Amino acid sequence: MRAAYTIGAFALVAVIWELVKVLVPADGVSIAGTRVLPRTGDGALPHVWAVVTVLGEADGTGTVGTTLLRTGTFTLGLSLLALLLGTIVGVVLAVAMQRFGWLERGLLPYVVLSQTVPLIALAPLVAGWGGRLAIGGQPWQPWMSIVVIAAYLAFFPVAIGMLRGLQSPPAASVELMRSCSAGWWATLTRLRFPAAVPSLMPALRLAAAAAVIGAVVAEISTGTAGGIGRQIIVFSQQATGDAARLYAAVLAAALLGVVLTGLVALVELALRRYSHPPGTGASTGR
């Protein structure tokens, strides 16, 4: 069903795309010298079928499609690493804030404030700091900076969603664990972690999309070659009268978010026994 929704969403975008080309003049619409609707000529907004057919055009030693597949795979791998790193950081922060109320009161505002820092300003700093580091005697690699920058975006929804989930068990359930002489760790693993799954999974889907966005922006900001972000810049410089290649790269980057979100859906499927909040009356797999 979710696959059908995804296909339907892309089909709706394609229909709206073509309607804009039909209804809006090629030179756009201007009011009092101010452009309010963009140009829709082929140089600015190619047809959907032009974006699809451009995948078969020659590009270097292969085609545009193979170039996007290669660079997209590179970015997808970095996004997945960023999602894993961001999830670990977010879960650790959430557990710490749930355990210590004073830490939540002092740290949570800064966790929220961290997302106001623009990546375009953060990327050069991370790349510069990383260039002075060595891990296990090995120099810092440019792709590591991309992973850190993307994880910076991904950790936030995980931390907030996980914290909300850890705090979701009813007081009666917590008291029951205490009456059974369960310590903090037993309560965390047997009560709070399972109860946090319904809040964690939507957060992971947001984090997956954020990881892809962060990786693409980081590739552009740091000038790292090999990924879809840098390929977008290359195609934008080649777009002289025909922007089909540029739009194909942008759509390929959007598909990376769909793929990574699909991987999260597989994790959600594996944890479906915990997918219902406590007290909803749904089956818990017993």
UniProtKB/TrEMBL annotation:
Entry's transmembrane regions: 74-95, 107-131, 143-163, 206-226, 246-267
Location relative to the cell: Cell membrane
Domain of life of the organism encoding this protein: Bacteria
InterPro entries: MetI-like, MetI-like_sf
Main location group: membrane
Occurrences of domain ABC transmembrane type-1 (ranges): 72-268
Keyword Cell membrane listed: yes
Pfam families the UniProt entry points to: BPD_transp_1 (PF00528)
Any single Gene Ontology cellular-component annotation: plasma membrane
Keyword Transmembrane helix: yes
Biological-process GO terms, alphabetical: transmembrane transport
Family: Belongs to the binding-protein-dependent transport system permease family.
Protein name, UniProt field: ABC transporter permease
UniProt organism field: Nocardia mangyaensis
